[in-house]
Amino acid sequence: MAVERTLAIIKPDAVKRGLTGDILSRIHAAKFQIVAIKSVQLSRTEAEGFYAVHRERPFFGELVEFMSSGKSVPMVLEAEGAIAKWRETMGATDPAKAASGTIRKELGTSIQFNCTHGSDAPQTAAFEISYFFAGSELS
User: Fold this and answer.
1) Is the torsion defined by CA of 81, 17, 35, 54 positive or negative?
2) pLDDT tens digits along 80-134
């Protein structure tokens, strides 16, 4: 399996609840290398741009409002099969359906307030990483 990179975000709900350290500990325990990390507060326009692929979906407005409601922590994770591995570590989008031991099962409270985001494919990861990080930040 190839080493790859994925974007992970600790979402505003988790930051507000003081879960950043817990989630970072889980990332380290899962043997990801954190290539880049920062704390940001997305503007509404930035959140709309990041989630533009969902613009026509009924939840778009709520998603943009939520993601611009407070600080979040985007990061680039690296590991063998990082995209699938991070999605497995996070668990299903709906915490009620997530596997035991996953971040969303143990820390999420709803589909919207599920603590984390992760890229779903190599092309998505490339776009998402570049949305938050300049090439010079990724060495």
Assistant:
1) positive
2) 999 999 999 999 999 999 999 999 999 999 999 999 999 999 999 999 999 999 9
C-alpha pair distances (Å), 128 with each of 56, 102, 120, 133: 19, 22, 10, 9
Q: Is residue 87 part of a domain?
A: yes
Does the pTM of the predicted model rise above 0.85? yes
Residues assigned a catalytic role: 117
The SS3 assignment for 17 reads coil
- Into how many domains does the chain fold? 1
Q: Which CATH number characterizes residue 117's domain?
A: 3.30.70.141
The answer for 115, left when phi > 0, alpha when psi is -120 to 50, beta otherwise, is left
